[in-house]
């Protein structure tokens, strides 16, 4: 897949924004790709500002609908990159024929794949134990964010990144983690995914464990390729040595 004039739409994860992708954006733009990294709905607010009440009730399909409008306006189908929750959104959009290829990096799992491991429950425990949490927006406290996502980042970078993280929809968390209880939104029909899929895991990921990510890759066989990186965890986009996974993703794209 030649980089010439190809567009990559980069979809960020929970509590984040397009800034998640700074390293990857520079890396892939240097290879000739046009990179777009939109903020999801209500995610362009300062992290220290109280969220809009609407955010708490916003669901995955709301995010997907916004992204689909942007994607359909492009001159051709883009390559989708998605990290964490964004990786699940990339799967949903791929099932809508919105991608010529999709790269799902430490992705959240779709409905049908049980993701509630001990480390996942520990990461979300403070949120899941709040009454009717799925009706409100939430932040992760700093210590829990470090445990869940930032433990492979240098100490000096953790606080700076955390300070940029904002609020996230409780409804989205329920749709991803508690689909067995009837929450809808995370369903993906694998038979409708016809583009090549690259599924990337970090061997030390606590919030989207590699054992879960492997099952995501299995869901899309034979169209999927699985890569797992030792020494990396959830924030693989910014962890020391991030260039190696980025280079292997680039090589996979060029081989398509």
Describe what this molecule looks like in 3D:
It is a single chain. The protein has a single domain, classed as Rossmann fold (3-Layer(aba) Sandwich). The strands form 2 sheets. It has a 6-stranded parallel beta sheet with strand order 2-1-3-4-7-8, with helices on both faces. The protein has a two-stranded antiparallel sheet with strand order 5-6. The chain has 10 helices and 8 strands. It has 256 residues and is α/β, with parallel strands linked by helices. The relative contact order is 0.17. Helices cover 37% and strands 13% of the residues. The termini are close together. Strand 3, helix 4 and strand 4 form a beta-alpha-beta unit.
What is the fold named in CATH at topology level?
Answer: Rossmann fold
Distance between the termini: 5 Å
Computed over alpha carbons, the radius of gyration is 17 Å
Strands across the major sheet, in which order? 2-1-3-4-7-8
What is the CATH C level class, in words? Alpha Beta
Q: Structural class per helix/strand content? A: alpha/beta
Low-confidence stretches: none
List the helices and strands and how they pair.
Layout: E1 7-11, H1 22-29, E2 34-36, H2 53-56, H3 60-72, E3 79-83, H4 85-94, E4 101-105, H5 118-128, E5 137-138, H6 142-150, H7 155-162, E6 168-169, H8 170-177, E7 197-202, H9 210-219, E8 224-229, H10 243-255
Parallel strand pairs: 1-2, 1-3, 3-4, 4-7, 7-8
Antiparallel strand pairs: 5-6
